[in-house]
């Protein structure tokens, strides 16, 4: 669309505001917006007109949609959990993999004979985190900068594994969702019920 359709500053700002609202609505979990109704609601609000739909009817509609979205999220979460469980069950069959009592799985990529940290230690590590489909969600390796953190201040799967790892070793961790970010996930970066895979190299015990 040509800029000539919106020649004045007011028109361009108005179009920009409309684009911003549209982008927000497009990213909303509810995907069935009626554009004509949206335009009518926006026009009435800007004009200060009374709502064309009663508060009771609006509340009822929002309640119905909210329930539908919750059901969709629950179904997606159950599917994600089932995918992770199936992957871990199959992975546990490999002879290279050790499964702990908690359900944590690991395999030793590079062995070492160094000291092992405790739950109160602070460590320096390099790590590379992926979902079970191989998509990377976080990686100190890719950033080229090791991370430092307290052993007791990370997800349960890491806390357990780090106390088993000698300094200098590199392990691959397969972490079930209940030892990772659980039923809630993490700030949109990690969906709920996600099983995770980490390559972890323990570089040093700082304290």
Number of helical regions: 5
As a whole number of angstroms, the C-alpha radius of gyration is 25 Å
**Number of extended strands:** 7
CATH domain class name of the largest domain: Alpha Beta
Determine the CATH topology of the largest domain. Answer: Chitinase A, domain 3
Percent of residues in helices comes to 25-40%
* Share of β-strand residues: 15-25%
* Structural classification: alpha+beta
Instruction: Give the overall silhouette.
Output: elongated
Task: Quote the distance from N terminus to C terminus.
Answer: 61 Å
Spell out the helices and strands N to C: HHHEEEEHEHEE
Supply the number of structural domains.
2
Level-2 CATH architecture of the largest domain: Roll
Describe the protein.
It is a single chain. The protein is α+β, with helices and mostly antiparallel strands and 207 residues long. The protein has 2 domains: 80 residues, Helix Hairpins; 123 residues, Roll (Chitinase A, domain 3). The protein is elongated and about 75 Å long.
């Amino acid at each position: 669309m040509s800029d000539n359709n919106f020649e004045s500053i007011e028109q361009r700002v108005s179009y920009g505001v409309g684009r911003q609202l549209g982008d927000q609505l497009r990213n909303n979990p509810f995907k069935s917006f009626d554009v004509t109704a949206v335009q009518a609601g926006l026009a009435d609000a800007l004009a200060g007109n009374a709502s064309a739909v009663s508060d009771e009817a609006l509340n009822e509609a929002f309640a119905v949609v909210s329930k539908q979205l919750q059901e969709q999220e629950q179904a997606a979460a159950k599917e994600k959990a089932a995918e992770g469980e199936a992957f871990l069950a199959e992975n546990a069959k490999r002879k290279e993999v050790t499964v702990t009592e908690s359900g944590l799985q690991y395999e030793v990529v590079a062995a070492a004979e160094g000291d092992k940290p405790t739950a109160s230690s602070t460590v320096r590590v390099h790590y590379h985190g992926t979902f079970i489909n191989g998509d990377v969600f976080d990686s100190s390796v890719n950033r080229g900068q090791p991370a430092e953190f307290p052993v007791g201040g990370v997800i349960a799967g890491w806390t357990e594994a780090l106390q088993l790892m000698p300094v200098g070793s590199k392990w691959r961790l397969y972490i079930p969702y209940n030892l990772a970010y659980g039923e809630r996930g993490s700030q949109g970066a990690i969906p709920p019920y996600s099983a995770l895979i980490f390559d972890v190299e323990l570089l040093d015990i700082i304290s």
